[in-house]
Design brief:
The structure is a homodimer of 370-residue chains.
Chain A lengths: L5 H18 L5 H8 L3 H13 L3 E6 L10 E5 L5 E7 L3 E7 L5 E8 L7 H16 L5 E8 L2 E3 L2 E5 L4 E5 L8 E5 H8 L9 E7 L1 E8 L2 E2 L30 H5 L7 H5 L3 H25 L3 E5 H5 L1 H15 L9 E4 L6 H10 L1 H5 L1 H7 L5
Parallel strand pairs in A: 3-6, 6-10, 11-14, 14-15
Antiparallel strand pairs in A: 1-2, 3-4, 4-5, 7-8, 8-9, 11-12, 12-13
Helix pairs in contact in A: 1-3, 2-3, 5-11, 8-10
Chain A binds a DNA duplex (30 and 30 nucleotides) through α1 and α3.
DNA sequence: CAGTATTCGTTCAGTCGCTGAACTTAAATC
DNA sequence: GATTTAAGTTCAGCGACTGAACGAATACTG
């Protein structure tokens, strides 16, 4: 804990107002005062700062019924700090630029097999793509990089699918760079202002990862390794997994064990049987997760989203059978609609979260680089 | 989020100082200023309030080497608010009174089979025990009740081992009552100022529960159901469990599946084989937990603590085999030394946590009841 | 033993941020 | 055009922290 002073009060209230503006675009200063409980004078003072710093913009007079002076509409500034997100996959580098509202403003995709390629080489591509997106004429407040492996601090400790280890993801761009695991990044992409704030995203991309979101924040674990769902044991006598152990979920529900969507749609019996098995095993593993964490919403992403229609049945059956709290609040299972862009999108939004969380410091720092 | 004002600053800094005093008993005001970063004037003002409110006491001049005026030692007041904790078990009601430092000052145990007994009857016993402990002449700041079942809010939704359901744990005592799951309560008892702040307590009492502590706080889940380790599936073709599913950890590592300590010490082959199996299955389930949450310390409690010498081997072997992050930070497994009192102790300490977390509000409320 | 150096704790003016009330501005209604 | 209602601004006041100055207490020094 740090000592607190009046500056912290201002920080807190600035963030509070920015969040209120985000949630209620077009509202007036008076409306904000009513919503937040702050005095009108305080709102005026803080909003003026946010407007001066380019985070909030006045959108013109607000529509009202009845008499009285019309308020000035406020909304997130479209020219505020944008986020750049880059996802490094085994066969692609996908990037996007998101505006302050979280919408995608530009995209870049560089195809090519990164497996075994030198990290420096790939990071040079990443840097070029970031620079290209940052040159769009909008301010960039942060850059995020999603990688398929174990991340600690800004270092990718191990990425079996890329055959990388101990790679320091340090880009030479003038803004903060955040590094995240791919599943965690994809999980953050599902976090929407009006959506659930507690869920697990299951990300089927080569391995099986999970991003666990509790009250809008990622559960990262002590070292940042959390979410390794793929190596939950679902059958101690099962087949040997790449990790050395037996019966990991990945051997049943990883990409290698899944059929194509085409084969499933054709009703291929082998495909359907594989999906039945994958769904059941996923359900078994996720029941364990739900029993442990009491997080009642499951979002299927990646390959599992594409195959969701065939996975839902066995998955839900297994959840109903095994989740202890199901009687009081049955878990819900849905499929992500974000597609391949999820990881880049999530990490792009996360890259500017520090500004959302503490706009006052950002404004004081005046650190609009790039 | 709420709007913040100067009051919140004071709240925060009061809590900061109380925490510093707790961690450094006997320190002076000047020392606190150096530790916390607050100005001496602020420390004086806040400490005076804490002393006036009975939370902190001056312990006399502090020993110092070198010249200069000697400071006045400060420490948690031994006459500050105490906590009362009661654990309701299947065959006992165990209670204790803890002082502000967390030490046990008095105990009560009422033996007797609560299984199937009317909840009102048992709660009457609980109330009597609480009143008895509260009548010790020390102020009581909160009461906690630990129960073996699913808890939401102050309601025990379901306790299969007691055959209770939907019981509102509302005691007529003049202080706040907190209700917690037994495993969670036992987990909180392991939380010590100088100990780890991230761990999982596995509580083997009839069922198998877990209390997950992350950064000193319990992970309760969305509804408060988190920690149901006992029904993690460790073998989909295993024996049927009381919950209806197959292969739950509880059927391998629950009390019913464990031998007595005596049998194990005697080297009984059947007992040893049961322990080998229980240890392996525990390791399998806990590997999943560690992979999911990246919480690298496991504390065995209850029956598992008593049988720990026989469980450690297979448990650690399984963890080494299955935990993905083990290469960078191998999990550690230890046994709890708290014994049967753990749940009552943990919930007693938790019952006064609201005062620790916000002493200023407590003092303003002047709510020293009982 | 007196003087000095050093540290503890308090006092006080100063600053900063929030507040409530008064005031100004602006739009709708009569 | 007057009136009513609401938005936004101005301003004195308050509470909390700060830094410097001060008084108090102790140990060292000659």
């Amino acid at each position: 804990m740090r000592p607190a002073g009046q500056l912290d009060v201002r920080r807190h209230n600035s963030a509070l107002l920015l969040a209120a503006v985000t949630a209620n675009p077009g509202c007036s200063r008076a409306g904000l005062a009513a919503m937040t409980g702050l005095a009108k004078a305080t709102v005026s003072s803080l909003v003026d700062h946010l407007v001066a710093g380019g985070l909030v913009a006045e959108t013109g007079p607000v529509e009202r019924t009845g008499r009285g002076r019309t308020g000035t509409g406020l909304a997130l500034s479209a020219t505020g700090p944008h986020g750049v997100g880059v996802a490094v996959g085994v066969d692609h580098v996908t990037a996007c630029l998101v505006d302050p509202l979280g919408g995608v403003r530009a995209r870049r995709v560089r195809s090519g097999d990164n497996r075994g390629r030198a990290p420096e080489q790939v990071l040079a591509v990443v840097t070029r793509v970031v620079r290209s997106l940052a040159g769009q004429g909008v301010p960039v407040g942060g850059v995020g990089v999603a990688v398929p492996g174990l991340v600690r601090g800004g270092v990718l400790l191990s990425a079996p699918n890329l055959d990388w280890s101990e790679v320091d993801i340090a880009l030479d761009v003038g803004v903060p760079v955040t590094v995240a695991n791919e599943a965690n990044a994809a999980a953050l992409a599902e976090l929407r202002p009006d959506g659930p704030r507690d869920y697990v995203l299951v990300s089927g991309e080569v391995g099986v990862g999970a991003g666990i979101v509790r009250d809008g924040a990622l559960l990262t674990g002590v070292h940042g390794f959390a979410g390794e769902l793929g190596h939950l044991c679902v059958d101690p006598t099962g087949p040997r997994c790449g990790c050395g152990a037996r019966g990991c979920l990945e051997t049943y529900a990883g990409t290698a064990a899944l059929p194509t969507r085409q084969a499933a749609a054709n009703g291929d019996p082998e495909a359907l049987s594989a999906l039945e098995s994958a769904g059941t095993r996923l359900g078994q593993a996720l029941s364990g997760l739900v029993n442990l964490l009491d997080i009642p919403t499951i979002v299927l992403g990646g390959d599992h989203a594409r195959l969701a229609p065939w996975l839902f049945g066995p998955l839900r059956a297994e959840l109903a059978r095994r989740v202890i709290g199901a009687r009081w609040s049955p878990p819900t299972v849905v499929a992500s609609t974000l597609g391949r862009e999820a990881a880049a999108l999530g990490v792009a939004r996360a890259a500017v979260d520090h500004i959302r969380a503490d706009p006052d410091s950002y404004l004081r720092g005046a650190g609009q680089a790039l």
